[in-house]
């Protein structure tokens, strides 16, 4: 991911971040009814699973590889790794649809690892943009609430998880719309604040 108003790219591809973020938003939309606990049929679970696979997984995977080709380490790492988590969402929904629930202990262990990774990535992306910082912070909170539910063996944080899912999709759309529309309009149709903080000046 690069600065939201940037149009230049150092590699062979156009800036792929909007593709990845739109895929993220579609995946969040597909998971929103599940997150809010709406009664779901096998058909609904399988439908959500395909959106997670094609958009959450596919769009972000493609965008991540394009970021790497453009020599964008941070965007490539984040989008590619997160895309594979969306593939796991697809698999989990498919398994739930046929009556098999993924093992909670394994999911908890991976969620803890993801939390550590996203805490670091939140700090790193704060050097690029406040909006990117808050996008990653939302993901951190999402994993905190997921872990809380798993540890407490309850759904006490179900609504916070659902709210974080909706906010994540909206932030992803805002950033992607800005990257697509602002350079064409020549103004900040979708305003972006600057970096959360600046790197330490070199002596």
The major sheet is characterized as: none
Number of strands: 0
Low-confidence stretches: 3-8
Structural class: mainly alpha
How much is the radius of gyration in Å?
17 Å
Furnish the topology, listing elements before pairings.
Elements (H helix, E strand, L loop, with lengths): L16 H19 L6 H28 L3 H25 L6 H22 L4 H23 L5 H28 L18
Helix pairs in contact: 1-2, 1-6, 2-3, 4-5, 5-6
Notes on the structure:
- With 203 residues, the chain is mainly α.
- The chain has one domain (17-181).
- It is 71% helix and 0% strand.
- The longest helix is centred in the N-terminal third of the chain and has 28 residues, at 42-69.
- The chain is globular and about 50 Å long.
- Residues 3-8 have low confidence and may be disordered.
Provide a brief overview of the structure:
The chain is mainly α and 203 residues long. The protein is 71% helix and 0% strand.
What tags apply to this protein structure?
mainly alpha, 6 helices, single chain, disordered N terminus, 203 residues
